[in-house]
Amino acid sequence: MKFQDEFRDRELVKNMAANIRRMAERLTKPVNFMEVCGTHTMAIYQFGIRSLLPENVRLISGPGCPVCVTPVGYVDRAVACTADARNIVATFGDMLRVPGSRSSLMEERAKGADVRIVYSPLDAVALANANPERRVIFLGIGFETTAPTIAASILEATKLGLSNYYVLASHKTMPVPMEILTADPDLALSGYLCPAHVSTVIGANAYKPLAEKYRIPCVVTGFEPADVMQGIEMLLAQVLAGESRVEIQYSRAVSWEGNPKAQTIMERVFVPCDASWRGLGLLPGSGLAIKPELARFDAERALAIDPGEEQENPACRCGEVLKGKLSPFDCPLFATACTPESPVGACMVSSEGTCAAAYKYGR
Amino acid sequence: MCLGVPMKILSRDGDTIVAEVDGVQKEASVMLLGEEVGIGDYVIVHAGFAISRLDEEYAQETLRMMKEVFAPEDMR
């Protein structure tokens, strides 16, 4: 796409970097900006954004990778689903290698379990339609970008009258963890690069309570190098002016109201619930559960799943990485015991994970 | 898995579109989109669904403003 290439214009990005350096000279103390979107984390490493910034403007990666924040207990439940030969477990590819307490979906598949990678939740519905004698269990993880697509798959299964389609739901919603991290004095956050595609659905208004309550600048930012640089520049301008507003840098895709149709479909299928996050623990109202009237699609309620006892690998520091308290480079396992080929923790598995991005681009 | 990809719509049949990026063509559903889209429009496709229309006018406007603010002659 022509206009996308222009957002990678080296000259433009260089000028933006010079501008940011000049602005940063006026800072009285260093600022910490957090990105809470895995795609931002990838872009920041891939385009070497950190190397363009002065020392007193720091970027911290937060819990923006949906696979990474999924707790080990969920992986155990997904693995338990593969034990019954009637079941087909359908999932997005990056869940496959995430280690559970004793096994991963990849290991179970190697032993003969029927685990299928799908590109869209609708592919999982089609799988259920084509295999009426089997049960298809789709692993429903992801933020507000993915939740409407899974809600749509449940509505599609209803329309087709399917009784063999299930979702093992563990959806998370974004503003709640941002509030927890803002309140953490250790992080001393000065601003957020707000997630772009989550915001296409929920709209930029969703961050207003955060900006107002915690007086923290929020800028909804796109993924190209010029987008990220402008997002940082807009945050800096707010910090220097002593302001804390929500602004949209990524106006070509994000509005204040978001996508009302996606929101409506999500509300028809899900209700807010408490959710467990890797690294952050149980956060009230930060998840989405399937509504009771649609319980027949809810794998958790409709099927007997016994995940066994949960065991975290005590050496894994993913929890601290997800909170922005540990850089991947400071984890003793990074690039030694833990690599993308043989990941110990979730942050090294998904390409959106902070450790995977640091491994691929940052060394 | 959370990757949204900007794609150009090549064809549309009901709620199903075929969209393209870098020569790769994919089918996607537009049932989550609140606004009408057609052939030639850009959308962000995530997990088989178009979740947002990508507005080229806004993109050009952002670029124009960026270039104006960050013009080389203003830089030291």
From TrEMBL, chain A:
Name of the protein this chain belongs to: Hydrogenase formation protein HypD
Pfam families for this protein: HypD
Family: Belongs to the HypD family.
InterPro entries the record matches: Hyd_form_HypD (IPR002780), HypD_1 (IPR042243), HypD_2_sf (IPR042244)
Metal-binding among keywords: yes
Organism annotation: Oryzomonas sagensis
Record keywords: Iron, Metal-binding
PANTHER family found in the cross-reference section: HYDROGENASE MATURATION FACTOR HYPD, HYDROGENASE PROTEIN ASSEMBLY PROTEIN HYPD
From TrEMBL, chain B:
Protein name (record): HypC/HybG/HupF family hydrogenase formation chaperone
A Pfam cross-reference name: HupF_HypC
Coiled coil regions in record: none
Family designation: Belongs to the HupF/HypC family.
PROSITE patterns, per database record: HUPF_HYPC (PS01097)
InterPro entries registered for this protein in UniProt: Hydgase_assmbl_chp_CS, Hydrogenase_HupF/HypC
Transmembrane segments: none
